[in-house]
Amino acid sequence: MWEVFAKADDGPFYKEQSEWMLKSFIPQMKRVIKEHDIKYDGKSIVNQDDALADRTWEAAKDFFISVGVYNQDTHRVMKFSEREVNEVLYTKRPKYMIGAGHDQRWLRVRSIEDKERRPFHLFSPDANFSTDIHKKACMAYLKEPLLDGLCAPLLEDFMGRKATSQNPTEVAAAMEHAMNLRDAQRLVGRPDVWTVSVGTAESAQAQIAAGNPVWGVRQSHLDGRMVSILTEMTTNNAMLNKSLHYRSYGNVFGNLCGAIFGGHAGGTEGTLILQTAYNIEGACLYGSCWALNFPFHLKWQSTTTRQLLWLQSVLSQAMSRNSNLIFLNNLFANAGPGTEQLYWECANHALATECCGGNPWGAATCRNKFTDMATPLESRFYHEVSEASFKSRLTRAKCEELCQKIMEKYEKLIPVDNYGKRIQEVYDMDKLTPRQEYLDQYERMRDELCKMGVEFPY
Name one GO biological process term (predicted). Predict the structure, then answer.
């Protein structure tokens, strides 16, 4: 760990990040795309070419070793040798026992078309919720039977003031977030379930403040945390501080990483290589135990376009075939609660990733833009489709067939602002149950998938 931190002071110096991007990042990306022959046909959704998955892994590893990580605070590039990278990849654990009691689970690597290891179902709205309903929203998600873990909704206010990064309001909101989550777990009878906390805390000091075994984030295997890779292949001292705290606190923590489709890496092929490299970067730079992948579209801010579903399919296969790195796939949908489009997007993401060795994380809605615009109902649907894919042992070929049919249902709607309803409209917030109108819609969408050949286990 400390040898890695020293790289922030000892590596090659670039006064401006833009200089490093122009002299190193961009030319190296162009090189590895060409040398490793990474190509997308523009039509496929679920990759069935094992050789392409393997070349993607080699390209990502080559790229990471060649480029390194730019530290914005020291203006140094933190570079890793091939031997250092190989050591990290070899010594990474392929599974962790997390949670406790009745809610203890394995978080682990899976294989392509895995017949034995079910997906790990991490429910998460990835959205801000109003202070007055935050605890109730946590309870509503925790009630879901398939849930193996929860990343709770975020708080955006504290005592009537916006929670601002590097401000006392952020620290207090992070503490309140953690307290609400602990209370919610006890109130629905799931005190030992694994949670990933706390998204409200952007700064290192707010994360540290929320760590408390009595009322806040718990130590060791009981809770997870996340530390981000900044855009692109970049970090800063605050992120390194977070990783130090998580490791000393003993959390099974993850690397939050999202390459931008249409950003510095370019199109589909470059974004694929960058996203795969992020998984290697998190393990080497932060010592993370797992990674949350959310490659997203620059314009639409979603992960359910044709290109990004294919990208996540190849990414999952590259990781599953070539590493012991644990990863999850994050769903960011374009549409919002109470819309049929949202259900189709959830189904496509689940089918495109589960058969490739992925683990589902979600579901985020409305391009992750608005407060109170997510419900447990679409997350339930998303995870049930993923579980159905596993239980039915769906092949990549079958999932490709299904995904193409489902894509026809919503691809033309992606540019439309179809944001749907707030959780207060979809759910009875006293009983914490879906209103009948939306429960009926949910059942209709399940029936539609059944007609296509998806068999739900219950």
Answer: methylation
Q: How many helices (H) and strands (E) in the chain? A: 16, 22
Contact between 347 and 406 under an 8 Å Cβ cutoff? The reply is: yes
Q: How many CB atoms lie within 10 A of CB 186?
A: 11
Which tokens in the block code for residue 145? 């039977």
Convert the pLDDT of each residue in 232-267 to its tens digit. Answer: 999 999 999 999 999 999 999 999 999 999 999 999
Does a structural domain hold residue 186?
Answer: yes
3-state secondary structure 154-223: EECEECCEECCCCCHHHHHHHHHHHHHHHHHHHHCCCCCCEEECCCCCCCHHHHHHHECCCCCECCHHHE
Structure tokens at 326: 């644990």
Continuous segment of H or E residues that includes residue 362:
strand 360-364
Residue 391 forms beta bridges with which residues? none
Average pLDDT over the chain reads 98
Residue 118 structural domain: 95-452
Distance between start and end Cα atoms, the chain: 46
What is the identity of the amino acid at 356?
A: C
CB of 266 within 8 A of CB of 232?
no
**391-397 long-range contacts, Cβ below 8 Å, gap at least 24?**
391/455, 391/457, 392/454, 392/455, 393/113, 393/115, 394/113, 394/351, 394/354, 394/355, 395/113, 395/355, 396/46, 396/47, 396/48, 396/112, 396/113, 396/313, 396/355, 396/356, 397/46, 397/48
Q: Distance between CA atoms of 200 and 138, rounded to whole angstroms?
A: 14
Angle of helix 50-67 relative to helix 268-281, nearest 10 degrees? Answer: 60
**Residue 440 is assigned to a structural domain of this protein:** yes
The answer, as to whether pTM is greater than 0.90, is: yes
CATH number at residue 413: 3.20.20.460
Q: What is the pLDDT of residues 11-56, one digit of tens each?
A: 999 999 999 999 999 999 999 999 999 999 999 999 999 999 999 9
Q: Total structural domains in the chain?
A: 1
Q: CB of 257 within 8 A of CB of 291?
A: yes
SS3 content of the chain, % helix, strand, coil (to 5): 50, 15, 35
Q: Please state, in angstroms and rounded to a whole number, the distance separating the CA atoms of residues 278 and 286.
A: 11
Q: What whole-number distance in Å separates Cα of residue 36 and Cα of residue 54?
A: 10
CA distance 111 to 316: 9
Let me know if residue 2 belongs to a domain: no
Q: Is residue 76 part of a domain?
A: no
